[in-house]
Amino acid sequence: MSRRITSDRPNLMEVEKSEGSNGIHVIDLRDLYGPNHANVITQIGFACQHHGFFQVKNHGVPEKMIENVLRIAREFFRLPESEREEVAEYCSSVRGLVLRLLGAISESLGLQTDYIDKQLGNHGQYMAMNYYPPCPEPELTYGLPGHTDRNLITILLQDDVPGLQVLHNGKWVAVNPIPNTFIINIGDQMQVISNDRYKSVLHRAVVNSNKERISIATFYSPSPDAVIGPAPDLIDDEDNRPAVYKKFTYQEYYDKFWNIGLATECCLDKFKA
Ligand code: OGA
Ligand code: NI
Fold first, then answer.
1. Is the pLDDT of residue 22 over 60?
2. CB distance 204 to ligand 1 below 6 Å
3. Is the Cβ–Cβ distance between 165 and 205 less than 8 Å?
4. Predicted local confidence at residue 11, as pLDDT
5. Which ligand 1 atom sits nearest the alpha carbon of residue 219?
6. Which of 46, 76, 208, 222 has the greatest number of beta carbons closer than 10 A?
7. Which ligand number lies closest to the CA of residue 126?
8. Could you name the domain of life of the organism this protein comes from (predicted)?
9. C-alpha neighbours within 13 Å on the C-beta side of residue 248
10. 182-196 pLDDT, tens per residue?
């Protein structure tokens, strides 16, 4: 991390606490397959549409597994074989969660439950373990500058140290850690498939003056050759809902993204219809 010029600092005084109505909604997945199904779908749809971010609890990934994967990440790079296996099990458990969420998000858009799943080709799943060291002057830098996620959907596990902030109504909102809770965010590809109903929003990570912070991000993506475009059911030329994006392969998107670099400038604009 390096000291940034004044105009490129997080401005920590202006960040809102996520208490109250601005917060990132916590959705209880316990009832996703119960009598309350429709209500859970509505909550997911609302969160995707208005925030592009939500949190899930009772998600089916065992508590012990979460505890272990965070501990393992903390012991960064000192992985014996048995721990590698634990990480692999965590990855498949998270994959299960992603598949349930993709079903729920499809439904929340009024699409067939397996619609999004079917658009992805061979699904890609990447895990990043982020380590944010303590920094004596957090207001001078970022752990991770503002960005949107270029993939389809991201599942973030953070430890008990705050740092993630999400842009909502023009203001940065701090997402306070809740144990055993994943933070889910909509990526660029989901914004395209939903024809702009769901938003891939800017987020960033800041650092703390005396504590290190760990987060584990699982990026879920289409296969490079998957053709991504707005779902036909969400396009209606007569109803003022024309396709906002043209079709492209995820590979094309990726190439464009790397050409732009990590700029916060929106890559999605380059794929407008
Ligand atoms: C990311 C990300 C946030 C965090 O890795 O894309 O947004 O809190 N991470 O680590
Ligand atoms: Ni991100």
1. no
2. no
3. yes
4. 83
5. 6
6. 222
7. 1
8. Eukaryota
9. 21
10. 999 999 999 999 999
Q: Sort strands 213-221 and 124-132 into parallel, antiparallel or unpaired.
A: antiparallel
Q: Which of 237, 238, 154, 252 is nearest to 201 (CA)?
A: 154
Q: What is the pLDDT of residues 223-264, one digit of tens each?
A: 999 999 999 999 988 778 899 999 999 999 988 877 665 555
| Model confidence, pTM | 0.81
From the CA of 132, which ligand is nearest? Answer: 1
Tell me the mean pLDDT in the region 94-108.
Answer: 98
Residues 40 and 31: beta-carbon distance below 8 Å: yes
Alpha carbons 142 and 240: distance in angstroms, whole number: 40
223 contacts: CB under 8 Å, gap ≥ 6: 120, 121, 122, 123, 124, 250
Ligand 1 and 163: CB distance under 6 A: yes
The three-state secondary structure class of 31 is helix
For 64, the token pair is 């012990």
Mutation pick for ligand 1 pocket among 183, 184, 203 (CB with most ligand atoms within 8 Å):
203
State if residue 262 touches ligand 1 by the CB under 6 angstroms criterion: no
